[in-house]
Amino acid sequence: MKKILLFTLIITTFSSFTYISFTEIINALKSGNSAEVAKYFDNTVEITLPQKSNSYSKNQAQLVLHDFFNDNTVKNFQVIHQSENAGSEYCIGNLTTSNGVFRTTIYIKQAGTKELIQELRFEK
To answer: How much is the pTM?
Structure first.
């Protein structure tokens, strides 16, 4: 009985971390806070914007995202779909900005004990 209870507690705990990570990432996107989003970047992040796409270091990616948010003041982010696929998770949503709506895709993957953003796409 103790083993079943312990197993259930461990599974619940890990499931909670996944949900909290996406919740915090989504809240950071809603506020247009590049520094907060960057807390969840892996060491290398693929960022796709309407005018460019590249793989960046964590610090470079934060600067690219900061510039994007400066050019496109964020008004809201609404989740359309969120799911898990082959050990990674993704979230698709609409980022509403001063310059229109961007379909946004966030890919995260387990890296050690943390789930980190591997790829971030903004498509007009």
So the answer is: 0.81
Q: Splitting the chain (124 residues) into consecutive groups of 10 residues, what average pLDDT does each group show?
A: 50 45 89 96 96 96 97 96 87 96 95 89 96
Amino acid in the structure at residue 50: P
The Cα 18–Cα 57 span in angstroms is 23
Q: Where are the beta strands (DSSP E) in 20-112?
A: 41-48, 53-57, 74-85, 88-97, 100-111
User: What is the CA 65 to chain-centroid distance, rounded?
Assistant: 12
Give the span between the Cα atoms of 90 and 108, in whole angstroms. 6
Q: Which amino acid is at 90?
A: Y
CATH of the domain at 45: 3.10.450.50
DSSP state of 58: H
Find the domain containing 62 and state its range.
Answer: 2-123
DSSP label of 72: S
Domain count, the chain: 1
Q: Measured between alpha carbons, how far is 65 from 93 in angstroms, rounded to an integer?
A: 17
